[in-house]
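Hey all, sorry for the wall of text incoming. These are the two entities for the joint prediction.
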Amino acid sequence: MAFRDGPFDQLKVPLAWTAAVAVAVALIASVLLILADRRMDGEGHEYGPVRAGFDAVAAPVNGVLAAPVRWTSAATDYIRGYFFAVSENRRLRQQVAELQPWRDQAIALKNVNARYETLLGLRTEPPVAMATARSVSESRGPFVHARLLDAGSGKGIRIGNPVINEHGLVGRVVGVTGGVSRMLLVTDVASRVPVLVDRTDARALLTGDGSGNPRLEFIRGVGSVQAGDRVLTSGDGGGMPRGVPIGVVARGIDGSWRVKLFSDRGAIDFVRVMLFEDFGQLANMEDLDAPPLAGLSTAPAPDAAVAAAIGDAAARRAGTAAQATATAREAAE
Amino acid sequence: MRRPVAVRVVGSFELLLRPALIAVALTIVLATPVKMFGLTLPEPVLPLVLAFAWPLIRPSMLAPGVLFALGLFLDIFWGGALGTWPLALITVYAIVLGSRNLLAGQETRVLFAWYAICCAIAFFLVYLIVSMEAGRAPSLIALLWQIVPTLVFFPAADWMVQRFDDGDVRFR
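and here's what came out:
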């Protein structure tokens, strides 16, 4: 019997009701998705296949859209350079003259530092390899500050790698596919970076809140921060190398300490991903992975001669001990 | 003798899929990293316009599904927690669906006020979820910079309501 021939042939459900049922199902599905989301799971070092696939498709599209912007910017820079060449030349000459003594000091300090390192036998961090990438897309809302980069695991990029531009720290990689990676900016509400204040060496935590200037929180010490202080990465926790410049301290309108980012000085177009592998890169990973005390093994089972010798030695030791006990008892009496 | 009345049936593609695709395309275009004179492109939540307009035009089983997909797109494209924007969009759809009889035939100012209230509820929901997940509340100033462009897109919702409301007499 067909449905239309049955008792429900005259059944008519208002459209609003069916829509309400669809709404209820979609609401439940949304809540379940939120509860099941593992995006910020600290243990997860894998990028979800759906997100990875989506990024792999979205990045080239945004790359095409970003190309005219880049060309326009390059043309503007060219024209500006042409018309302002003289004033730019004067400014650069002055800057070179100012930087000359700094260069001499840096060479001298580098020399002294190398001697100290040799004398103390310090094992310094090795140079960090870099991978250059271009930012092709950005989300800049209050809830997410992230960018897609057109370089991925094919260039050795891994989740957690810090990202810098020519001015300072920009963010860190939170997702990688073959040719695309997603970078979480330091201004994102989920970003936390351990930092130090250069002047006082005080430690703090740089926490983003979706605005352009992240906050400085958990500052160690009283009066250890003042406006204008330079902030660097501290390297605590091993997630980032020490000493990457971030910005300068300023008071926010809400009275909290905030950081004006160096990376905001120019457009974040080309960036460099630091292929930094925390403290693990200082050691030979194979040695670390070896089982503990691998060089030591259990002694082999004794043969008959060795067993007899051990038994003899044990008997003699027992006899000596009994004799000593008897002597001691006699002396006591 | 009565003359036959021509009924123009507005299909799902015209009402749902085409606006959804336009919203996706505009979202992708607005994500282009442009910075001129220190200013960047705005980042409005365009599917909110559709979540407001669709239930006013015609209740549908398909629309919540399309909104759910649009929300997932926003979460994945922007890199947020999955389910956040679907929840906000479906909530707006549910509110407008529930108040459909009140809003039918109201003038544009009333619709805008209702749209602003719906946007406020949607952003509050997302704000709450993100705050709980990140352990810190996002900046309210930054939030305002997303709410204002979203409100600016209200004429698109109004145009859709005017354009499609009388398109299909069966749903009056």
